[in-house]
Amino acid sequence: MTHSSRFFARFIAQILTIIALGLSLNALAADSFVVKDIRVEGLQRVEPGTVFSYLPVQVGETFTDEKGAEAIKVLYGTGFFRDVQIQAQGNVLIVIVEERPTISRIEFTGMKEFEPDVVRKSLKAVGVAEARFYDKALIDKAEQELKRSYVGKGMYAAEVVATVTPLERNQVAVYFNVDEGPIAKIQEINFIGNEEFSESTLRSEMQLKTGGWLSWYSKDNLYSKQKLTADLETIRSYYLNRGYLEFVIESTQVSITPDKKGIYLTISIREGKKFTVKDVRLAGETLGKEAELMQLVTIKPGDTFSSARLTESTKSIAEVLGSYGYAFATINPQPDIRRDIAEVDLTLVVDPGRRIYVRQVAISGNAKTRDVVIRREMRQFESSWFDSDKIDLSKKRLGRLGYFTETDITTEDVPGSPDQVDVNVKVTEKPTGAITLGAGFSSTEKLILSAGVNQDNAFGTGTSIGLNAALGKVNQNLTLSNYDPYFTEEGISRYTDFYYRSSKPLYYIGDPDYQIKSVGSNIKFGVPYTEVDRVFFGTGIEVFSIYATTNTPIPYQNYVTSYGGTVPGRLQTYNVPLTVGWARDGRDSALIPSEGSLQQLSAEVGTPIGDLTFYRVYGQYQKYHSFSKGNILSFNGEVGYGEAYGNKLFPITKNYFVGGIGSVRGYSPGSLGPQYYNTVTNSYQPTGGQSKIVANVEYTFPVPGSGVDKTLRMFTFVDGGNAFGENINLVLRYSYGLGISWISPLGPLKFSYGIPYKSQPTDNIQRLQFQVGTAF
Predict the structure, then answer these.
(1) What ranges in 580-663 are assigned the alpha helix state H?
(2) CA separation (Å) from 53 to 48, 78, 87, 344?
């Protein structure tokens, strides 16, 4: 509808209103009268009391022509009615109304680009919504708003037509019929005024492209006003970071072809001169920390001006001041430009503002986890000054719990207290418990039954408990474990477990008596001595029983005789180990780490109190680096070494096993390292090794189409490693492949497809693998 036609429609509507007003007033007697009663006719949804509240005359008052005209005007003005008449029967005033129809429902046809519920919310903002009165002017406005939304998406050919269908009981249904048409594709992107950088260089910085072989997926050749705005800012930053302090985007022209299918972009710029920094100084209130703050300035005299480095410097200064309680410090860069020699002096004016104190720490989102579990990880305390470093540390500590998929910490001003803020901690809990019942089948064990109950945050207390059992013809396991991260209020942790394990490999045909049993219990304490460092110490007791015959594998026979047993016969040994360790966990999350590192070093020694005299040392290093949202490069390295002391062999029950997901993918679990050739089955069987080396490099990225969903990710990897016997021969096995990980309601799941590299004929290959709950 054109501007002139809309004006004409409003003019006609006003004339009709005046005519209706005149007709209504003609129905009244010319003489005034005292109103004895007021009757309202024609109401369907509007309450009579609403009409009475708008009338300028009440029962007992004198009615005049002026009051009648005012009453009609006011009732029309409510928007509830499309016709109003006032009549008099004796001393009774009769108000006759015809209500506007109400909107019963709003439907969309042909709309694919937007979600209907989202559009309904936006239409409500312009006055069009279900249960509201129908107004054609508002429907026309909604029609134009929806069309403008399509134009913002680059869909210039979109047509939107609203139709209104009458329904029963004075209601209407509004249908928005949409013909979206094609999205306009970018044909050319041209720059005017660029001298220092070529058009191809500038275009490479933009999201919008003229199209390529992947445009069908990336849709980078589809015009979007939002993307263009972001691209212009990117180009601006590109110049400002390379010294062009006075760079300006003078104009942007968007031209569309007559068929509305092609877009031509022309960007006019003025580069200006390339500036060099002559001097950098601090001014304002530096709180006596000028030397400390000056070290944070990364842009130096003699450098080419860079907006990014200047921003980085001001941000670093603000963060340091934030750690001293000045949460709202501002650093205002003031350039002194000398255009004739293309130099600039930078003055960073520091305004720390008030020192801010934390009134309270409020926690939300924890439907299950108790407040105390979250508060004991907080390093920002109430009634102390605000410290941005402690806020960041608190967020990392909460992330390392592994109970939450998201942790958000924000501040909120306290009304009437300019030097106080509230700290709001909002968490998104993930399922931390699982009850599992399963059955499996393998060529060796045939039917395998398993069951387990595990809870990493039992009853919201932060403690972990687990009971797991597996029953098969080869392996039988039963484990009960408990971990309390705050065994004491000071943060000393305690881990205990009780277990029973039995292994009777079926592949040793001819030796039905061969079996290994172990029963034991361990207890370990962890003592924190910094925010990220913890030392461990513990002990336990283990009882090993081995039943061996002359058909038992030679390594096991040698182990039995080394500890005074006989073959055939049964050997039972006791082990009372001491364990010590150290760990530094600087990761931002235990569940989905993206930054930081994890370092561990531990040692286990079999004491002379028991029968086993040995020691084992183990070290691990993990590093995570995030390139962009959801794109993470991670490294994992593990080294283990074991040796016996005295005149006995290293306990074969303490061997390391390598292979499978969690170490070197693409190979069967535990299959790498020393092997025993079974002449009965004509196959090689793994026995593990006294030492091991494992290295993994993994690149994680979001699943295409999932945005930056952290719970569903894909990854590629390269693995290497092996286990070794008494004589270490550094011949490693390698693999590469890809996989997918999912934080499911049952726990972290990981699937991988590994392709072995430089494998040997004796290796047991297993390309497709699955595991629950590990990072690598």
Answers:
(1) none
(2) 9, 11, 18, 69
Q: What's residue 697's pLDDT?
A: 96
Tokens representing residue 770 in the block: 């699955």
Helix or strand run (H / E) with residue 118: helix 116-124
DSSP 458: G
Output the CA–CA distances (angstroms, integers) from residue 711 to 242, 403, 707, 745, 749, in the order listed.
38, 13, 11, 10, 10
Q: For residue 562, give both structure tokens.
A: 């080394």
Q: What is the mean pLDDT of residues 750-763?
A: 87
Is 756 in contact with 769 (CB distance < 8 Å)? no
Sheet with 185-192: list strands edge to edge. Answer: 185-192, 262-270, 248-256
Query: Measuring CA to CA, which residue among 134, 122, 36, 138 is closest to residue 80?
Result: 134
Structural domain includes residue 301: yes
Query: What's the domain range around 385?
Result: 357-429
Q: Count up the domains in the chain and report the number.
A: 5
State mean pLDDT over 659-669: 87
CB count within 10 Å of CB 608 equals 11
**Residue 745 DSSP class:** T
Q: Is residue 434 assigned to a domain?
A: no
With b for 16 or more beta-carbon neighbours within 10 A and e for fewer, the 159-170 pattern comes to: ebebeeeeeeee
In the structure, what pLDDT confidence band is assigned to residue 442 with cuts at 50, 70 and 90?
A: very low
Pick from 120-124, 239-243, 442-446: least confident: 442-446
Q: For residue 335, what is the domain's CATH number?
A: 3.10.20.310
* CA-based nearest residue to 547, from 557, 536, 539, 538: 557
Three-state SS for 276-311 is EEEEEEEEECCCCCHHHHHCCCCCCCCCECCHHHHH
CA distances to 132, 305, 326, 542 from 43, rounded to whole Å, are 16, 72, 62, 87
C-alpha torsion sign, points 470, 475, 481, 485: negative
Contact 744, 713 (CB under 8 A): no
**Roughly what angle, to the nearest 10 degrees, separates helices 116-124 and 136-152?**
130
- Provide, rounded to the nearest whole percent, the portion of the chain with pLDDT above 70: 88
Residues 22 and 70 in one domain: yes
Question: Which of these three, 405, 429, 453, is where a domain ends?
Answer: 429
The answer to whether 469 and 435 have CB atoms below 8 angstroms apart is: no
> In this predicted model, what pLDDT tens digit does every residue of 122-132 receive, in sequence order?
888 778 888 78
Domain boundary among 396, 429, 462: 429
Judgement on whether residues 400 and 381 belong to the same structural domain of the protein: yes
Residue 324 clears pLDDT 50, i.e. is over it: yes
Contact between 585 and 531 under an 8 Å Cβ cutoff? The reply is no
Residue 627 and residue 633 in contact, taking contact as beta carbons nearer than 8 Å: yes
Q: Which position has the token pair 């599992």? A: 436
Strands 577-585 and 596-606: antiparallel
Are residue 223 and residue 144 in the same domain, yes or no?
no
Whether residue 266 is found in the same domain as residue 201: yes
Which pLDDT tens digit goes with each residue over 288-315? 889 999 999 999 999 999 999 999 999 9
Using an 8 Å Cβ cutoff, are 216 and 209 in contact? no
For the beta carbon of residue 610, count every other beta carbon within 10 angstroms.
16
Q: Which of 271, 262, 345 is nearest to 310 (CA)?
A: 345
Counted residue by residue, the chain has a size of: 776
SS3 call for 234: helix
Three-class SS state of 389: helix
Q: Could you tell me the two tokens for 196?
A: 């220092």
How many other β-carbons are positioned within 10 Å of the β-carbon of residue 240?
19
